[in-house]
Amino acid sequence: xxxxxxxxxxxxxxxxxxxxxxxxxxxxxxxxxxxxxxxxxxxxxxxxxxxxxxxxxxxxxxxxxxxxxxxxxxxxxxxxxxxxxxxxxxxxxxxxxxxxxxxxxxxxxxxxxxxxxxxxxxxxxxxxxxxxxxxxxxxxxxxxxxxxxxxxxxxxxxxxxxxxxxxxxxxxxxxxxxxxxxxxxxxxxxxxxxxxxxxxxxxxxxxxxxxxxxxxxxxxxxxxxxxxxxxxxxxxxxxxxxxxxxxxxxxxxxxxxxxxxxxxxxxxxxxxxxxxxxxxxxxxxxxxxxxxxxxxxxxxxxxxxxxxxxxxxxxxxxxxxxxxxxxxxxxxxxxxxxxxxxxxxxxxxxxxxxxxxxxxxxxxxxxxxxxxxxxxxxxxxxxxxxxxxxxxxxxxxxxxxxxxxxxxxxxxxxxxxxxxxxxxxxxxxxxxxxxxxxxxxxxxxxxxxxxxxxxxxxxxxxxxxxxxxxxxxxxxxxxxxxxxxxxxxxxxxxxxxxxxxxxxxxxxxxxxxxxxxxxxxxxxxxxxxxxxxxxxxxxxxxxxxxxxxxxxxxxxxxxxxxxxxxxxxxxxxxxxxxxxxxxxxxxxxxxxxxxxxxxxxxxxxxxxxxxxxxxxxxxxxxxxxxxxxxxxxxxxxxxxxxxxxxxxxxxxxxxxxxxxxxxxxxxxxxxxxxxxxxxxxxxxxxx
Length: 687
Hints:
The chain is mainly beta. β6 and β7 form a beta hairpin.
């Protein structure tokens, strides 16, 4: 038997591409629960640019809301929607990575297995020479149809980062490419043009290599090598060499001086101050210490210090204590306005600092702001993820299904589904966890597992259940009410249960799941329905006609008749009745609509003539009893007028023994393989 499989393909396909890290789906190495492996940290489970946000959920699906987020690249999206072919009709392939960048207006970049797609305000990230329209569509770059650098395929992309006027790609092999209208942002000696990808170089002949993280800002880049060294290039950049980077220009990637007390580098970030392009660097040590370098715009280092910091300096809390308990850092890296910073410490406590334009970091003042817990969040709240960007900040709070939003509420930027009342919008300086939508973010939200199955399946086929959940989740389940079992979800985010030759309905129930975010009792049930149409009954409804009855099967049914050699005599039909049958062996086939689950039933339709004349004249000389050859357990018994059995035929008989019968009337009883009987009479005229 064959079966038709029904899978949630929109979820499944997103797990097919690992992009050279340990996780083929959701990467939980993020936010409060991130570890010290810089190569596998996911910076981009939440992205905020100017009035627009994107999140990645536990099942590796992306959602977007806010300004210019519609497929036409002009209208806002007021409530989170999936980035898929339904909402973005031009999209093809499986979504692998998403980036947002802005400079007062956002542009969306989507990488799929087919290549790069772009929509939103032209010129904010992708040069206008490549994409001059707003609408969502695929781009080609320098004649390459997938939009990627020469020799790079979608699965080769480890990280894709967007900021004002630049898109940066880091490959699995550690090479960095930049697509930008700004020559200094390319890091290749200001060569090339804005219609082609530039390879970031250490010098005119040596590509920058071994990179595991590459971020940046307008007209500059900042990268971390696997060997723990830092590199920067572009305009107004700092190297940690005690020089004032406001006037420094590096045409090529330049190795930076690290803090003398550094243990290892976990994360990097960089922000900028508007059109001045003064840059602020951040480095998170693996011992949880935050270091700052560059321009301390509006207190964006988090503490009172000189406006210019020329060497890496530890940040401080308001009480003067060194920030040496930090788990996560986030700066306004996707937009070149409003230098600010957010941090999460080991306890899940959040502090923000810097420019509070539009209330975007939850402070009371719009000028200089040093570290403080933002409005609307208490010191007892556990914040699992934070993203500062554009003109807002997004937060995920443990125990709350709705995300937190602070900043400029306009053009759907909060995702609450409410249209603007005017062209100015509302400035929210207090985090709102009430009117915002419910979202699930990979690794930092309490996301319930889901179960997929291959129901319906055919009788005696293998049943399959697939549990999809965040990697490292502990799942307790019961199969068919048997003993509970607990498993840990691996880095694929998938756990599969197989039941061979299932002959009855299979039921899987998840009873509990737990992870760093939550520990919950649940009742998530999935049933694998078995199609078993084998209980078939035949009724003869009239001369030369039958009706097929299926008992206890799975309607709606389709029916087909084959002959003894397997040839189709009556093709598939929805009616259970067949007409104009002749004496024949038939194989009756029944299937449930839209499946290939076929049940077979062997049936002999008997319609013997009432008169035979075996006299050799070629007319009515013989009975066609060839059907008995296929009827291993059937018999045809013939009786004379006195009730004496004169002949018994089966599949081994010659079938012509009746030729020597005397003239007279005979009766027969046909018994089929299940014991059903049919009787009739025959007149033999043998002279």
